[in-house]
Amino acid sequence: TLQQGCISLIHGFTTSMFAAQGTDVTGLLSDIPRLLDRGGMFSIMGTILLVLCAFSFAGALTLTGALTVIINRLLKAIRGVGQLIAATVATTLLVTGATSDGKLALLIPAELFRESYLRMGLDTKNLSRTVEDAGTVTEPLLPWTSAGVYMASTLGVSTLDFVPWAIQCYAAIFFALIYGFTGFGIARLPTGASTAPQGLNPV
Fold first, then answer.
1. I need a labelling partner for 121 at 20 to 30 A (CA). Which of 32, 103, 142, 199 fits?
2. Residue 120 · residue 196 · CB < 8 Å
3. With 80 as the cut, is the pLDDT of residue 196 above it?
């Protein structure tokens, strides 16, 4: 009913709602209520609060320029493509851990490193791939991120217990570094590409 739908939206669904309509649910397997009796806004308020706090903290870091200072000092030591890829990976991991949110770890490093990739004559899809390799897939490995909380609560297994088995989550980082230092799979801009920032010549 409409009333039960509203209750499910806020507090979550329960199989007893079927019984209220005259449907016999006594013969259900015990695993079915365990899977279905959940949900609602209240059940995810902890994760929502974590995301809100993460965005607030990230906003403070961005407005104060703290991340920009760190990145600029890091960029001064970069001399090659491999070092640039490694710096991107390190920064993405740092932002993910500091802000507790992987979405910000995609946006902030991508914006900060974009001109550096163009300066070296690299296509920005290298940057996109690298922040994904170090951000999206590694977020579930950090217990204090929204993805980490979701994975642990859904699986019923603590983060440190499933990390050794989540090989795909951290293998991408090693491949990103291999690509960067070997040049394999690195896309470069055509000579004289108009996407390079003014005053910067692709190498």
1. 103
2. no
3. no
